[in-house]
Each structure stands twice: as structure tokens, then as C-alpha cells.
Design goal:
By secondary structure, the chain is mainly β. It has one domain (about 1-180): Jelly Rolls, CATH 2.60.120. The chain is built from two helices and 13 strands, in the order E-E-E-E-H-E-E-E-E-E-E-E-E-E-H. A hairpin with a 6-residue loop joins strand 1 (about 1-5) and strand 2 (about 10-15). The longest helix is centred in the N-terminal third of the chain and has 7 residues, at about 30-40. It is globular.
């Protein structure tokens, strides 16, 4: 596995070793040993999966303390633009984001540590998206940021008239210092 640093400390792109031949391919998508050695000692407790169609934008989500989450995400069918926004209290990159395209073809994974809001947009006809979390989902700690907040400057790569959003995500507020965790 190759670990690629981003412009924001802690956000990492992971490129697994993929072995291809005439039969297809094989890759190790996760190894506790390698992840702990190369990335971070994280104990994942829950795997989630979503299937979405073109134009769906999910996010920007996070859980409030004490239930903050680290995530390891990947797209196993289709293509998504995955985005993480720094909401760490006192961080010099607070409010900044990193966006990375994850696809079935590039096999990239994105590690998002605690202290980030997370979301993605579907760029292909459909996408199957998977993520590992190091904390269980707690509805009482569920929070989010308005994904169209102009201060964030995120290009979701989907025209606004084609975006499909949940009512909950449309009702979110722009990023504020109160969101810092």
C-alpha cells in the first residue's frame, strides 16, 4: 500500500497494490497490520455501504464528541468525488477541504481522521460506496454542514440543477466555529 499525503495533515490517500492478469485483479483492500504501521492505530468497528445514482450528494456529515469518527472510504462500483472538510478546533486549516476522486478503476481509498466533516458526490451513472468507521453511529451526535456553503468553495462536479440531496442535508447551516470539534 502506498500512502499519499494531502495538503491537510491527517487526510491520506491510500493506493493499494493491485495485481492484474487476464482473469481480472486481486488486491488487499484492508490489512490491520499495514494500516496501523503506515497510517494510524485505528480500531474500526462498523462497515457501511451505500448505493447512489448520478447527482446524489451526501454530506457534509460528522458526529459530535464524544462520538467522533475516523473513516476509511472507497468506491467499489462507479466514481465519486469524496470531500473532507477540516473542522478541528484550533486547526490552521480549519474550513479547508481536500477532494479526491475515488473509483472502481483507480482503487484509491481515503482516510479521514476524527475532526473532519465528510461527504461525496456521485459522478457516474451509479456508485457503490463503502466505508469503515471507528465509532458506531449515534443519532443523537449526528451533525453536518451545508454542502453548498460558499465559504468552503467546494466544486462537487455536479451541476446544481442535477444535484439530488436529502431534506436533512439541504437544511444544514454553513460552517461556523461552533462546529469545531
Amino acid at each position: 500500500m502506498e500512502v499519499i499525503k494531502t495538503d491537510i495533515a491527517g487526510l491520506l490517500i491510500l493506493k493499494p497494490r493491485v495485481f492484474e492478469d487476464e482473469r481480472g485483479y486481486f488486491m488487499e483492500s484492508y490489512s490491520f497490520r499495514d494500516f496501523e504501521r503506515l497510517v494510524s492505530p485505528v480500531h474500526f468497528v462498523q462497515d457501511n455501504e451505500s448505493m447512489s445514482s448520478y447527482g446524489v450528494v451526501r454530506g457534509l456529515h460528522f458526529q459530535k464528541p464524544p462520538y467522533t469518527q475516523s473513516k476509511l472510504v472507497r468506491c467499489v462500483v462507479g466514481r465519486v468525488l469524496d470531500v473532507a472538510v477540516d473542522i478541528r478546533k484550533g486547526s490552521p486549516t480549519f474550513g479547508q477541504h481536500v477532494a479526491v476522486e475515488l473509483s472502481a478503476e483507480n482503487h484509491l481509498q481515503f482516510f479521514i481522521p476524527k475532526g473532519f466533516a465528510h461527504g461525496f458526490s456521485v459522478l457516474s451513472e451509479s456508485a457503490l460506496f463503502q466505508y469503515k468507521c471507528d465509532e458506531f453511529y449515534h443519532p443523537e451526535a449526528d451533525a453536518g454542514i451545508l454542502l453548498s456553503d460558499p465559504a468552503l468553495g467546494i466544486d462537487w462536479q455536479v451541476p446544481s440543477e442535477k444535484m439530488i440531496l436529502s431534506a436533512k442535508d439541504m437544511a444544514r447551516s454553513p460552517l461556523s466555529l461552533e462546529d469545531a470539534i
